[in-house]
Amino acid sequence: MRAEITQIRLNRALATVGICSRRKADVLIRAGAVAVNGSVVLEPGRRVNPLSDTLSVRGQAVRLRADETADDYCYIMLNKPVQVLSTVHDPQGRPCVPDYLPEEFRRKRLYPVGRLDFFSEGLILLTNDGYLTHALTHPSRHIPRYYRLTVRETPTPAVPALMRAGMTLSEGDTLMPVEAELVGEHVMTLVLRQGVNRQIRRMCRDLDLTVLRLERTGFGPLSLGDLPKGRCRPLSRAEVTALRKAAGAA
């Protein structure tokens, strides 16, 4: 059964499938570059339905719906290197995740599912399945994301305890409890179920820890395994099935 998909803001819909950031989406929308069901929309807060509405940016269709056949879909796992953007294009010419895909996959117009910040590395999923992307990134899903964190300092046992209790960041954001374990003198493993921007780095900042390396090792049922840095691979049918089940989109 498909997950129940509610209407979402137009700017978030564009960001969800990797067209651009929400802020950039606001600019595009107000400039008259975005149309919904063939009509130009100038309000970023306009609500759209990923299952029934058709979107386009500068006349180019944006795939949000799940009405194509399964054969049209592509699901790729990439081991993102550091200093690579989790977007499809950068005006400044910096490397973006599609740059690491073979040409056969680039032609399929794949978009990253969520974000992995510029200086972080590891597992990022790319797909042209807009329905699944929305289901995976919806705040109600709490899909687990697994990380390996290396810091300069030696954390005391109080550090993972504070993370497990649920922190409030200095900006006022209240965080869900994080599964945190010390696995080495400078290394921790973390499991997050919340999509707060740069959450791990901000937690470390508030705990006086200096991040040396941050690697995402898993996303829901997916595991990075031994996939080399900068390389990608298609998901197996079993992995896609497991991912859809985790997102409630089976």
Textual characterization of the structure:
The chain is of the alpha+beta class and 250 residues long. The N and C termini lie close together (6 Å). The chain has three domains: 8-62, Structural Genomics Hypothetical 15.5 Kd Protein In mrcA-pckA Intergenic Region, Chain A (Roll), CATH 3.10.290; 70-140 and 221-247, Alpha-Beta Plaits, CATH 3.30.70.580; 145-219, Alpha-L RNA-binding motif (Alpha-Beta Plaits, 2-Layer Sandwich). The longest helix is centred in the last third of the chain and has 11 residues, at 237-247. The chain contains seven helices and 15 strands. Helix 1 (10-16) packs across helix 2 (22-30). Strands 7, 8, 9, 10, 11, 12, 13, 14 and 15 form a nine-stranded mixed β-sheet that branches. Strand 5 and strand 6 form a beta hairpin.
Assigned CATH architecture of the largest domain: 2-Layer Sandwich
Low-confidence stretches are none
Shape: globular
Largest sheet: 9 strands, mixed
Spatial separation of the terminal alpha carbons? 6 Å
| Topology pattern, helix = H, strand = E | EHHEEEEEEHEEHEHEEHEEEH
SS field, number of helical segments: 7
- Note the beta-strand portion: 15-25%
Round the Cα radius of gyration to an integer and report it.
Answer: 19 Å
Could you name the CATH homologous superfamily of the largest domain? Pseudouridine synthase I, catalytic domain, N-terminal subdomain
Oligomer: single chain
Number of extended strands = 15
Percent of residues in helical segments? 10-25%
